[in-house]
Amino acid sequence: MADVAILVSEQYAKEPYRDDLKLQERLESQGMTAEIVRWDQDGIDFSKFQLAIIRSCWDYDYRVEEFLTRMKQISDQCALYNPYRMIKENSSKHYLKDLARRGIPIVPTVFIQKEKELAKKLDDLNSEFVIVKPTISASGRDTHRCRRDDFKEIQAVASTILKSKEVMIQPYMESIETRGERSTVVIGKTPVFTMKKTPDKGNFLVHRHWGGTYQKIDLQSEDKKFLQKVLDGLKEQPLYMRIDFVYDEKDRPLLLELELIEPNLYLNENKKGLELLCEEIKGLLTV
To answer: pTM for the whole thing?
Structure first.
């Protein structure tokens, strides 16, 4: 029996992502066996593994139902991390509503299921620009910035998204251009690494493939208090997660996303996170 299946997309099964190779190498250096496996490959007997960990499955948002079905099948054969119930809930940004009810400060968000709801729900947002995107998406795909007073543009964008997914709209947080977005990696209950992400001039998306720049930084005291509030507000603790947050006009941290499925954990740069993740996995294998 093998120990760990590192689940990835077809692209990263053919040419493994450096972080997945780092994880595989470190697990094997600690006496465990690890194999990089395509999540959607037919004929894999996952009962031969003790544990499967979701990593570079960066195509899942194109076919969420297929992905969730496969993750349920895998979880019936071996331990899946993060657990199926967590990733199913986390696959739609509706989880933000639940977190807000538990007292976690989030970026104000309205959800649109039908186009006729648009005008009324937009009244709940007060900003010069808004972000319009699907409730299920990744890497900035299908994400648009619109003027709050340009209803026709917002309607056109929302109408296109609604053909296949629900829509969420948030005020554009202008601090992202000055202070940037923060992405903090948490392993177990421990924040281990924070990346500051800043969009390219004239852009609003922070991802590298959109021209954004990344810089490792240390957390400020206010950030640490915010992160602890997020951790305290969770119903159960995942093996790994990434907490993405921005700042409001009063420099208060607000949760943007809580990534529990396949977040980039920056393991190539995040040595502490890599070590702790391997320790946690080793502990799970001996339970």
So the answer is: 0.94
